[in-house]
Design goal:
12 helices, globular, Jelly Rolls
Length: 275
């Protein structure tokens, strides 16, 4: 298995958190327990060799070879697997507030434990982009083309929101340790109004996004190979108590922290977390 990271073009860097190409000569076996966990980012998934199957809470979705798919923000993990043959797909992860700015789709419409066919979600643009991607030979040409298309979208002047940008940036810098009342105080807006803004631009309310950022801080420590006992030393800086931490961690991964760190290899997850 190999994950190669792509440097987004200058125009796309404000919108894209991570851009990568996944390759495996033997698919993704179920035994690898490969998980995609919540990170606050909506995604484009482009399988160019083999199909991918994702399972979340007994709901199964398939990203077919040569397809073009959008995945909205999620609050639970997805188990990913692919048949035992050569597998390759492109992944583009967008900053939490950037999906609406680029695509003009209210993000709350995409928050679900499912995969959206881009032709259905984006109409003519999704259909035309999928057709060209499917006819291009070589992953480098596909990467270059999708960047061209996203740059064109970024130039259409879609609306961002300074308040949402500020709140997302503040929550991320604080690793989620920011009371929503403090966001209310610093922005001058009520929690209800912030929830409305976030519903359109992010798909999740600020409190849920803050919880994802807190979880991701510990998830990256796991990816670095730190044992559970070491993580517990910083636990109370982010959570009320150990029970609160365990509940949130299990909601995001489907496993208790100790079980996850002992039994879930998820090489794919480690690779993305260490980007």
């Amino acid at each position: 298995m190999r994950i190669s990271f792509v440097q987004p073009r200058q125009e796309l860097r404000p919108y894209i958190e991570a851009f990568w190409v996944f390759e495996s000569p033997n698919g993704i076996p179920l035994a690898s327990r490969t998980l995609a966990v919540p990170n606050g980012c909506a995604k484009l998934i482009i399988p160019y060799e083999n199909s991918l199957t994702g399972v979340s809470e007994d709901r199964e979705g398939v990203s077919h070879e040569h397809g073009f798919y959008f995945v909205g923000n999620r609050i639970k993990s997805t188990l990913i697997h692919a048949s035992a043959r050569k597998t390759g797909f492109i992944g583009i992860e967008f900053a939490p507030q950037s999906g609406f700015s680029l695509f003009g789709i209210p993000m709350h419409e995409t928050v679900d434990e499912k995969i959206f066919d881009s032709e259905v979600l984006f109409g003519r643009w999704g259909r035309a982009t999928r057709e060209v991607l499917g006819n291009l030979d070589g992953v480098d040409r596909k990467v270059s083309f999708i960047q061209d298309e996203l740059v064109k979208l970024s130039r259409r002047g879609r609306r961002s929101n300074d308040v949402v940008d500020f709140c997302v940036r503040t929550l991320k810098l604080a690793h989620g340790r920011m009371p929503i009342k403090e966001l209310e105080r610093t922005t001058g807006y009520t929690r209800r109004y912030l929830d409305i803004l976030f519903k359109q631009h992010v798909g999740l309310p600020p409190k849920i996004l803050a919880g994802i950022f807190r979880f991701q801080m510990f998830y990256r420590k796991w990816a670095q190979g730190l044992p559970y006992e070491s993580l517990k030393e910083r636990l109370y800086d982010y959570y009320y108590d150990q029970a609160h931490f365990s509940k949130e961690f299990k909601r995001m991964t489907g496993h208790s922290p100790r079980e996850f760190m002992k039994d879930v290899p998820s090489e794919f997850g480690r690779g993305l977390a260490l980007k």
